[in-house]
Amino acid sequence: MSTPRIRIVQLDGATLQALADQDLEAARRTSPVGLTPWLAGPECVSTWRLRAVQAVESPQDLPWVTGVIWDEDDGVAAGKAGFHGAPDVDGMVELGYAVDPDLRRRGYARAALEAMLERARREPDVKVLRATVSPANTASLALIHQYAFLETGEQWDDEDGLEIIYEMPVDQG
After folding, report:
1. Whether pLDDT at 6 is above 90
2. Which has the closest alpha carbon to 170: 78, 96, 101, 94?
3. Are 10 and 67 spatial neighbours (Cβ–Cβ below 8 Å)?
4. What share of the chain is helix, strand, coil (3-state, %, to 5)?
5. Chain centroid to CA 171
6. What letter does residue 2 receive in the DSSP assignment?
7. Full-prediction pTM beyond 0.70?
8. What residue segments make up the domains of the chain, in order of their start?
9. 92 and which of 22, 128, 166, 169 could share a cystine (Cβ 3.0–4.6 Å)?
10. From residue 171, how far is each of 111, 121, 153 by CA, in Å?
């Protein structure tokens, strides 16, 4: 199976807020690409709520934060992916991604990870890429282990529970 051709489409504050409000119709009016019900559903709403607040409080993060995984060939939104924000003072960016359950096992997570890795490599301020993964998320663990990520610790996330922290210098991979 070949990796799908995707791009991560950044969303503006209005679209992020509409998704945070689970208002798919309003989000569709302002989004540059088509949106699916899954993106406005319960599995994604907490991400959009965080990003909508972030767009207002830290507008410099807007070009970095979660956007839509857009399949260039099929013209469909396959999921969401992006960074948690702009690079921190140490040059670290944390990535995140999720694929619509109806489209999983088709290479979208790998394509999104590759797109984020390529972006991180192009940005002179980025030195380290971080991924945090639940020990129960076997698909994401298998994907992360195919790259030069090293386990650096663990953390507790109030929403996701225990997460293993992985980091990789962007000049590796």
Report:
1. yes
2. 94
3. yes
4. 35, 30, 35
5. 20
6. P
7. yes
8. 6-127
9. 128
10. 18, 7, 21
